[in-house]
Structure formats: C-alpha cells, structure tokens
Amino acid sequence: MNSDTLLFDKRNLHTLTFSRSTEAISTDIDNETVILNISAGLYSNLNHMGTTIWNILEKSTTFHQILDQLVTEYEVSRAECSRDLVTFLKELYENNLLTVQSPNETK
C-alpha cells in the first residue's frame, strides 16, 4: 500500500483536515469551476457537486463536515457519497490541488 492509499484509508479520514492547495487558483465559468495548478500547469474543471466541495475547501475542514453538507444538499446516500468523496479528494490530492493535514502536523 502506498502512502496516498494509507492517507485516505477510512480509518484515518476522521483525523485529517482538508483545504485548497495554495498552488491552485480557480474561477467560475458557465456554471462550472475551473482550477489551475500554476506550478504544475494542470487544468481541471468541476461539475456542480465538485464545485460545492471546492467551495467548502476554501476553509480547512474535515471529511465528515464535507460529507454532512453534501448529503444534506444532494439526493445521495451517505455510503455512496462517502465513497465518491474519497475518490474525489484523492484526485485533488494527486493533482496537488488539495492540502491534507493530520493532527500531529503544525500549521
């Protein structure tokens, strides 16, 4: 198992906080969010739910805070939303668009 897999293991998720990477800039275009990682030159666009998550990540937040808001706002089961959220956060992290902090790291 690599370190990214361990980082996003469901047993660890409750101990982590997530926020946008300082390497990323974003804007809204035609009801979608467009994100650019300046240092890597990576471009991503997000659908409505992805935009909601991106907006939540403007401030440091926990996995369960994101999950609670999504389940409240969208018609989706908690289990399905949780699986999809882990996948989405991993993708953001792998593209250097997400900062993940564990409790023992200093800010």
TrEMBL record:
Pfam families: PqqD. This is PqqD family protein. The lineage of its organism: Bacteria, Pseudomonadati, Thermodesulfobacteriota, Desulfobulbia, Desulfobulbales.
